[in-house]
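Now produce a polypeptide, keeping tokens residue-aligned:
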Amino acid sequence: MADIPPILLVGLGRMGGAMLAGWRERGLSPSVAVDPAPGAAALAGADLTVVTAPEAIPAGFAPALVVLAIKPQAAAETLPGYGRFAPGAGFLSIMAGRTIGGIRALLGGGPLPVGAVVRAMPNTPAAVRQAITVACPGPGVDPAQRALCETLLAAIGEVAWVEDEALLDPVTAVSGSGPAYVFLLAELLEQAAIEQGIPPALARRLARRTVSGSGALLEASAEDAAALRVAVTSPAGTTERALQVLMASDAWPDSVSRAIAAATARSRELAG
């Protein structure tokens, strides 16, 4: 028996596709996805019908939940076509910046009133079921709808819930965008290694394994990140010398803080 009831997935991009893969691993009831991209049809199967527009959704299809996995810039154009699935179905949005109130207003273009919307922010490690997602329930979300959202999001990793929707903007800046910062670190380590004469193939191997291995150690340890940093920093050693550069007042402490503030501000701007 499938663990996941029929879902209407709007958007089969990187995140939508990762979520779909996680759901299939848990058993997905026959569902529908909407995506006009030429490659989207390749994801169709016995458990998924892929169509290019909401008008093409099979008549009589009644999803338990509509998952909005499109870019926030496309919301105003796209969402009015899905309000007709309320109030029978709840909505789960993973669009950055778009507020619950704004989503409800856009969905209200349909003939029925729109109520239950959960707003969530996963991140790209969903592709290997290692995401961290923070979700916030909007007005009218009942326990069954919240539980279903938990099931769908848990299929791609860890889930946390907050009641204050305003927290979703800094969450987006920290964890939603966070993988890019980690990838940048690996990129810069690789470049610096090459500058010091390490062959490119070995430089890439060293950078990637150092980042992934350190993440695995952090995940497995009961110590906080600061304690692990101190443990690897011998007095007057090579690590201490490097950290004197990275932890200068105008280096990482300042730039990371400014970067998160900038991304948080951009998330708020995307609310439209």
